[in-house]
Amino acid sequence: MDILQTNWAKYGIYYGVISILIQLISFYVVPINIWVQMLVGIIIMCVTFYLAGKEERNDKGGVLTYGEALKTTFLTGFVGLVISTLFLIILIQLVDPGLVEKLTQMSMDAARGMMESFGMPEDQMAEALEKAEEDAANSFTPVRQLINIFTGSIMVLIVAAIMSIFIKKEADPNAIDLNKIGDSNV
Fold this sequence. Notes:
Blueprint: H1 7-29, H2 34-59, H3 66-95, H4 99-117, H5 122-138, H6 142-167, H7 178-181
Helix pairs in contact: 1-2, 1-3, 2-3, 2-6, 3-6, 4-5
């Protein structure tokens, strides 16, 4: 079996490309709030997982166990995550190294907004933002991005596990297979 012809690889590539497009739009066209970006990302992840699982179930005659659904959805997400992360590494390291400053600023704005919404005192906020800025700037190194693939896999696994509940369809145990009736060795 050719790996590129599997549903998880095909939809994983779709998911990766869509994630890249969202990143590019957010970075260069219309700045999107980090929280909105995450929400859109989760919605796209769920839709992609559903489509991959549904196609896998159709390919298997309308029956898909939870384990098979989980395998398909997780691998779809993992492929997409790897593609979008590798793209981000290439974009930051080779194409636009100045993007780190913009991404750090976006992270800082999101952190400031969250701290203000919780009513954090100004002196504590300044200290926390200083630490957050240092951490944000260091989070865009190639090694840190590769580590993010593994930590992101946990999120992918959680979403895949939930989506697989809705995608699975067990065989009807009461169904009678007429083809097996004539094959009995009685």
